[in-house]
Amino acid sequence: MDTQGPLLELRGISKSYAGVRVLNHVDFSLSRGEVHCLVGENGAGKSTLIKILSGAIQADEGEIILNGKRCRNTTPHQQIEQGISTIYQDSDLVDTLTVADNIFLGSEIKRFGVIARKEQERISREFVNSLNINIDPSILVSELSTAQKQILQMAKALKRKASVIIMDEPTSSLGEEESAALLQIVKRLSREGIGIIYISHYLEEVFSIADRITVLKDGVVTCVKKASDITSSEVIHAMVGRDASLFYSRERFPIGEVVLEVKNLTCPPYAKPVSFSLRKGEILGFGGLVGSGRSELMNALFGAVKPLAGEVYLHGNKLLISSPQDAIRQGICMINENRKDAGLFLQRSVMENVCIARNEKKLFIDISKDISSTDEMVQKLNLKTSGFQQEVQRLSGGNQQKSILARWLLTSFDVIIFDEPTKGVDIGAREEIYKTILELARDGKGIIIISSDMPELLSMSDTICVLREGSLIHTLSPEQLTEEELLKKYLDIA
Ligand SMILES: Nc1ncnc2c1ncn2[C@@H]1O[C@H](COP(=O)(O)OP(=O)(O)OP(=O)(O)O)[C@@H](O)[C@H]1O
Ligand SMILES: [Mg+2]
Q1: Which residue's alpha carbon is nearest to atom 19 within ligand 1?
Q2: Beta bridge partners of 276
Q3: How many other β-carbons are positioned within 10 Å of the β-carbon of residue 143?
Q4: Which residues contact residue 473 at a Cβ distance below 8 angstroms, ignoring those fewer than 6 apart?
Q5: For residue 87, how far is its CA from the centre of ligand 1 (angstroms)?
Q6: φ, ψ (nearest 5 deg) of residue 98
Q7: 328 alpha carbon to ligand 2 midpoint, in Å?
């Protein structure tokens, strides 16, 4: 066998949905030990390409060549058998089984027809130790963090002797530290000869691990270069066709009277009372490590979680919020970080999803108004869709995210909470979202942003609140604060 040729090659891959080409003669290759990053705007075709490679869908044209052999009529099972493993964010792990049981799922060790759990645990322990991974094989997967679950999926792939590992936006729900740990593992695996295909919207991350970078734009490869031969602005140019900055410098607006007052709001799991107030036109950023209790606090404020104690005042009036519907009715809305929980109606059209909140109280729906509002939002957020009637489940990940944002922008509210507003969103669209948030601030809305992206928090917030284990430990002005200083505040070591 020729071991010098590429490990994997995709040649002339094309794919259309209902006559719309989403991939157009795409070539892509991967060598042993290479980290090849795939970047591009939302809807560029990245996930589609790796779905074809993993056997989840079939290409209309083109071929996949693994180790010099052509793969035909691929299925997910067959691709795994051949050594191509995909790490999904919504993991295919079984929550109710232990780590060891998950590693051995489908290839259990049996003694007299019974699963030899102790032995599986022992081998799993040796295996994870050999990878320097700190995960206890005897605990249930439901007890693992998102980062640990992804690392476990990588361990599982190695156990199956994968030679190619594919990761689609693996760090988009992780904090800085967890992302760093995951990237270390990616680097180690590549040193061991595994080829890695890595999709991400975070260019800093891409440059920290990539050997090679491929840019997809509208289903066409616009650039393939060694990472050392290209700069991030060149990558951005190939992605969006114009300059866009990784750093956003915002305008400041006058801040008005207090609109929201939160007093001793106490919620599970930390049960610590938190108080803060938010003014008209103010952008209050919430920072902290993953698991610091930020989303829990905001979910309590939004009525999605029942608080243990505390009061919320809007324009000085005490609110009774026992459900998100109550919150929305009283003028507080929230854009959730998790698309799946964010209330998208996956089988309904883009237009219905965008207009549903605004139309809720209406007896008659004015279709022409819906069309013009949807059009306005599609333009504003650069939402990529084949038409307003396209089912939301058929949009790319980032475009689903944008349709949630569009929905809330069409409603009226006093306070809006963004939980990770730019997660999964491409660089061009990120600027659009920042502009939109600033317009809301200029209009006098009270804005809360939870973000794990420190540059985002530093550049967008008027004030940063730092949570740690459920307590509000610092209230800071972001001016002249560096990322490093902010991280120290998160860790409470300065
Ligand atoms: N099942 C489907 N039916 C119709 N169109 C689809 C389907 N799946 C994907 N598409 C379209 O294909 C295009 C590419 O989507 P894909 O998910 O590959 O984008 P992506 O590059 O992964 O974007 P993101 O960064 O937002 O995740 C999008 O315009 C999407 O709407
Ligand atoms: Mg995608």
Answers
A1: 43
A2: 262
A3: 11
A4: 466, 467, 489, 492
A5: 18
A6: -75, 170
A7: 30
For residue 11, what are its two tokens?
Answer: 């040649």
Distance CA 198, CA 54 (A): 14
All domains of the chain in start order, with CATH: 8-240 (3.40.50.300), 258-491 (3.40.50.300)
Evaluate if residue 175 carries a pLDDT over 90.
no
- What is the position in ligand 1's atom list of the atom closest to the CA of 20? 5
Instruction: Give 246's pLDDT tier (boundaries 50, 70, 90).
Output: low
CA angle, 89 then 93 then 99, to 5°:
120
Ligand found nearest the CA of 397: 1
Return the residue whose CA atom lies nearest to atom 2 of ligand 1: 394
Reported pTM: 0.82
Which atom of ligand 1 sits closest to the CA of residue 201? 25
- The residue whose C-alpha atom lies closest to atom 1 belonging to ligand 1 is 394
Quick one: what percent of the chain has pLDDT higher than 70? 96
* Residue 18: per-residue pLDDT: 87
Alpha-carbon distances of 214 from 27, 226, 256, 326, 460, rounded to whole Å: 10, 9, 47, 47, 30
Q: How far apart are CA 396 and CA 49, in angstroms?
A: 12
What confidence score (pLDDT) does residue 336 get?
79
| Whether the Cβ atoms of residue 190 and residue 227 lie closer than 8 Å to each other | no
**Between 60 and 116, residue with greater pLDDT:** 60
Q: Is the CB of 395 under 6 A from ligand 1?
A: yes
Write the DSSP symbol of residue 319: P
| CA–CA–CA angle 180, 128, 29 (5° rounding) | 60
Higher pLDDT, 308 or 291: 308
Q: Which of 386, 393, 396 to mutate to test the pocket of ligand 1 (most atoms within 8 A of CB)?
A: 396
Backbone angles phi, psi at 270, to 5 degrees: -85, -25
Angle subtended at Cα 176 by Cα 170 and Cα 180, rounded to the nearest 5 degrees = 65
**Judging by beta carbons within 10 Å of its beta carbon (0-12, 13-18, 19+), is residue 208 exposed, middle or buried?**
middle
What is the 70 CA–ligand 1 centroid distance (Å)? 26
pLDDT for the residue 209? 96
pLDDT digits (tens, 9 = 90+) for 28-69: 999 999 999 999 999 999 999 999 999 999 999 999 999 999
What is the tens place of the pLDDT at every residue in 125-160? 988 887 777 789 999 998 888 778 888 888 888 888
User: Which residues are near ligand 2, the ion (C-beta closer than 5 Å)?
Assistant: 47, 397
pLDDT of residue 466: 97
